[in-house]
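FIELD: query
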Amino acid sequence: MTVLCVRFQLPPMYEAALPRLLGLLEEFTPVVEALPPDGALADLRGAERYFGRDAVELASVIRVRALALYGVDCVIGAGPGPMLARMALRDARPGLTRAVPGGEERDFLAGQPVAALPGVGTATARTLCEYGLDTLGRVAAAPLSTLQRLVGAKTGRELHEKAQGVDRGRVVPNGVSRSLAADRPFDRDELDPDRHRRALLSAAEELGARLRAVDKVCRTLTLTVRYADRSATTRSRTLKEPTAHSAALTRTAYDLYEALGLQRARVRTVALRAEGLTSAEHASHQLTFDPVDEKVRRIEEVADRARAKFGPRAVMPGSLAA
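FIELD: result
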């Protein structure tokens, strides 16, 4: 095992702590890849030799230091590569690292649902399940030609390799991306698309308000939908122009959601992330001469002033919807 996938249990709206926590990981290895808003991958290949401890032992030290220095607990998955470490994280819990030892990859994967494999979306999983390939063990045992007929040549080959435990990914060092996130968990697994959309509206308005409060605009919006089985789907879209306008963010969020084509999906959480932040001062805005759009922007300005004076709850989520 050489790779850790760490998810810090940060309180909501506390993403600013992530760079410091990444610095903690970098005390063990320089090969750290940030996974905003609350996670990271760390390649401990050199650290295991240097410290004379294996990845699971180093994970315990990292957990203790995160608690002692920052009061933040974490869950950790360990594996021979990034894919397996990510999948191990799904079964981890605070205080116990879930590890996939080298040589046991196929045994670990065999009973996993096909949707648990990173990169397998809802449509691909549905296609495979229709043909009885509902677990990774069955996918690994299926002929490569069969998989390629079902999902395409390239995807079929990658799927076949991953199901057999071949992990060609690597940890790419980076910094925390300039981004803001807002998530909306449901009290119970939610089937109602109207409630999904209301949650997206609330998250988009929150992002817009937070962007305008720091005089930023975003270039990209990312939607993540987490399901009852703990799998997730993520989609991103580059905006026509950088914006902090809540209505534009909401429209894009709705478009991303509709493109998923969810039918009776049991959704646990929806999350939006505004990425590629730049200064609003240097952003251009194309005039539309649309009186409705101009009215909404004026309402936003009033709402922002109310929030600044009376606090974030001065304007209820969804109250700016046209």
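FIELD: remark
Residues 65 and 206 are 33 Å apart (CA to CA).
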